[in-house]
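Hello forum,

I keep getting stuck at the same step: I have a sequence, I want structure tokens, and every attempt I make locally crashes halfway through. Rather than fight my setup again tonight, could one of you with a working pipeline run this one for me? It's a single chain of 327 residues.
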Amino acid sequence: MDPLPVCCVRGLNIILIPSFFLYFLFFMVHGHDYLCSERDFFVFLKKLQNASVPCVTLFTFMLVLRYFFGLLGIWLVSCPLALSQTLHAWIITDQRDSLIGATVDREAVTAWLEQAAEVAELELSLKEIDQNGVYGLQLRDELLSIRPKEDDVMLFYFSGHGSEQCLENTPPAFRMPGNACFAMDNIHATFVNKKARLVLVIFDCCTQRAPIVLPMRGGEESTLTEVAQANIRRLWRDYRGYLRIGSNDPDFGSFSYGNPQYGGLFTDTFLHQYNQMILADSCEWEGVLKSTRSEVSQYAANEGKVQVPWYSTYLRPIHLPLYPKGN
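Reply #2:
Ran it on my machine without issues. Output:
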């Protein structure tokens, strides 16, 4: 059975909580008379024949509530609630180097996640962390200790300087105080093992510590039409699996480029493509990533640079259409 929409559950709460309170209060006061065996119950009905109309009406109302709550309980057990899905997000940025625009990336990604959580009705648990300001071991312990629910979403985003000194890790990777390295592969594996519904790990960084600034155009937010909102809900609620997204493929080059005004070329382009594609009749993660890869590669080439994003995904819709096999 499909999950109940959150708006329906909230409406039920508005009706049920006061009703249940009245039901509980009434039977706390008159429980000796009304919480009785079936035989005593019918005896009491005979007594009601001489009772006042308000008394009979009140008792009838409470009786209806009694069986209503019983049937509601059976229904809710068989119909999972689309409630309390949480978007756990970590945004780690290098806020020391103003040239690469990581601070701009942090603000843009934060706004992106806030919009997604609001439209898709996800509870947002967001941590914004300075790459140079927190000991990495604390972050590592936090990532290991988090216990998401099976319908939750987990997202890890990094924008800053990558590190080639994390030799034990496959790039991309970055280093934090406390001599702690964080590699995309390790974070991805940690999150997947948590069994969350959807996992996104995004790195916008160089595989070497050598930023080069490019002139860029700024991304733009899309108007949230009904179609756009439907696409956002589908992207964030209707998929199970993972996305690993890197701003540059080491096979094509070592650098990711940025701008102090618009942020990282990859992040700016990714959010721009996302905002444009949710306006279409249908929107898929694969389409956003494919378009981002093409746009970033072309823009860098026009500036005489090389930057080719890469991604790896495993996604499947939560509700798969089933068709009969054979005749």
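The chain has two domains: 6-78, 86-317. If your local run keeps crashing, start a new thread with the error log.
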